[in-house]
Design brief:
Oligomer: single chain
Distance between the termini: 11 Å
CATH topology: Rossmann fold
CATH class: Alpha Beta
């Protein structure tokens, strides 16, 4: 599948070759789209604040969290470092660094790029049960765990974030069958 970004075309097929399930749908996101959708997330959060601080979930939540923090003028920012993927393969959830600064999460906002299966969201809610969890994108399995999100995609969709992509020649769709 291809997406246009300026005059360049981005190729997702070569990366998709590593994904074993041919039924996976790709959803490429450009830097501009991520910025626009993260700003839309901030608009949805505006009336829920002010927040005492923001927890960015690494690594995917760093960019949306920076945009949300700017738009809501949140200056106290910490991270929760959680690993659940190695490349495009899901692994065990590994909490590399919690956020003790947020305590039980009361008055705090947690921002991540995506809720997929909900495993990361469950871990975050267990650590900070009173925090408000917001994501840019949500899949059906994880959606009930998120307090605020902007865009829902199907469970069988793989979102390609801008940091996952690089411009290169691409195969026409008909050649991918």
């Amino acid at each position: 599948m291809m997406a246009r970004q300026g005059a360049n075309r981005l190729c997702f097929w070569s990366w998709m070759d590593n994904m074993t399930d041919p039924r996976i749908k790709s959803f490429p996101v450009s830097w501009e789209e991520l910025h626009r959708t993260s700003k839309a997330l901030a608009w949805r959060l505006l009336e829920l604040g002010p927040f005492e601080g923001l927890i960015a979930v690494t690594r995917g939540g760093l960019v949306p969290a920076a945009i949300v923090a700017r738009e809501l003028e949140i200056r106290l920012i910490d991270t929760a470092c959680i690993s659940s993927y190695s490349g495009n393969k899901r692994g065990d959830l590994d909490i590399l660094k919690p956020s003790p600064m947020a305590g039980d999460g009361s008055g705090w906002l947690i921002v991540d790029d995506l809720v997929d299966t909900g495993e990361t969201a469950k871990a975050l809610k267990a650590m900070m049960p009173k925090a408000h969890l917001a994501t840019v994108y949500a899949k059906p399995a994880g959606r009930p765990l998120v307090d605020t999100f902007v865009t829902e995609v199907s469970q069988d969709t793989w979102i390609f974030f801008p940091w996952d992509l690089e411009p290169q020649p691409s195969t026409p769709i008909i050649g991918q069958r």
